[in-house]
Amino acid sequence: MGDLANCPRCSALFLTGTSAVCNQCRNKEEQNYQKVYAFMRKKQNRMASVEEIEIATEVSEKQIREFVKQKRLHPAQFPNISYLCEKCERPIQDGRICERCKLEITKGLKRHESNKELNSKKKVKEDRTYYSVENK
């Protein structure tokens, strides 16, 4: 059984478990999805951008991008729709971050690993150095 929580959208109390929002907000979200999907099913609207969909359906851009991110709307079927990279907020159609951010993170990890190796070599060298004290 779920826990009692406040809905992040309307602050109403609800039981968590099946959804992250209350039933009213979930129903509203489903209605919005049906509006967007009905609009996108029409052949002349399949190439519509997120902004055009927002104007035509009166569903927020954020919600439309969330439908894409949840894979409820597929960019393969509707090529001009996307959602935002979690790091830089560039439009993407797959994954959580864009290719540029992936490369940046990979370079940072490699740099960190090389620094780590360099520091460990320096420590080993220091551990192997012996100092003698002359008795006078």
Structure description:
This protein folds into two domains: 4-95, no CATH class; 98-130. Helix content is 49%, strand content 7%. It has helices at residues 23-41, 50-57, 61-69, 99-128, and strands at 4-6, 13-15, 83-84, 91-92. Strand 3 (83-84) and strand 4 (91-92) form a beta hairpin. The longest helix is centred in the C-terminal third of the chain and has 30 residues, at 99-128. Keywords: Cell projection, Cilium, Flagellum.
Keywords:
single chain; 49% helix; mainly alpha; two-stranded antiparallel sheet; 4 helices
In short:
With 136 residues, this protein is mostly helical.
Q: Regions with pLDDT < 50 over 5+ consecutive residues?
A: none
Please trace the helix and strand order, writing H or E for each element: EEHHHEEH
The shape, in one word, is elongated
- For the termini, the CA-CA separation is 80 Å
